[in-house]
């Protein structure tokens, strides 16, 4: 069987969908794809009214879309409206649980419902569109926003880390099979980002604008695993040669 060729992404040709696009990294990703010349950006949000500001400045290239990734009905309705999507960015996520031993089970479940099951459900909902794009020779890719905590656990957010590790495994599970269909699969191993999610945590953080730019650079260069910020880059490099050292380093983070 001849495998379709998978090239680095031409950002000015993409029709992309970003989930969780109303704030934080998702919003910055919408703006970064627009700056890169994307043909169309579907901006997914649980409350699309929060997307008005982005849509107004984009000369019709932004299409707001109601998407709750934990709702099968919401995903099916969105997929029916966005059949030309070629690049899906699974950005929507939550940080609802923390310490492995003390986090209430329903908070742990919320992290897994969104970060793992939601990411899987969104991928399955839009896969027919991605397959169509690949078959027609358009840009086709799946981009999962993960975390350095996918590489090794950060105990202070141990259950969130587990949900992001599961999403990393999901990303790896899809890479070969989708690659054979011409759909590139990327994982974004992001470090701390200056958004609402970690507002209460006192630590060095990178701006969502810079992280979004780092993600697009990774896509442009065709990297499977993208480290989009100064915290993530050395950790990803170390993980490639000494994963136990990453475990020790993240294990002592408070
Ligand atoms: N901030 C960090 O330090 C950091 C580090 C590494 C990775 N990440 C990852 O980066 C991604 C973006 O996070 P962020 O930092 O931008 O956080 P954020 O500011 O809290 O934004 C989270 C976004 O996800 C959306 N969302 C949550 N649950 C959803 C659902 N069920 N359906 C659809 N959308 C949903 C939120 O929508 P609503 O406004 O409706 O809640 C919001 O738009 C997440 O996957 C996160 O795990 C963040």
Question: Keywords for this structure?
Answer:
globular; 8 helices; 7-stranded parallel beta sheet; binds NADP nicotinamide-adenine-dinucleotide phosphate; 254 residues; Rossmann fold
Describe this structure in words.
The protein has 8 helices and 7 strands, in the order βαβαβαβαβαβαβαα. It has 254 residues and is an alpha/beta fold. It has one domain: Rossmann fold, CATH 3.40.50. The protein has a 7-stranded parallel β-sheet with strand order 3-2-1-4-5-6-7, with helices on both faces. Helix 4 runs parallel beside helix 5. The chain starts with 14 loop residues before the first strand and ends with a helix. Bound molecules: NADP nicotinamide-adenine-dinucleotide phosphate. NADP nicotinamide-adenine-dinucleotide phosphate binds next to helix 1 and helix 4.
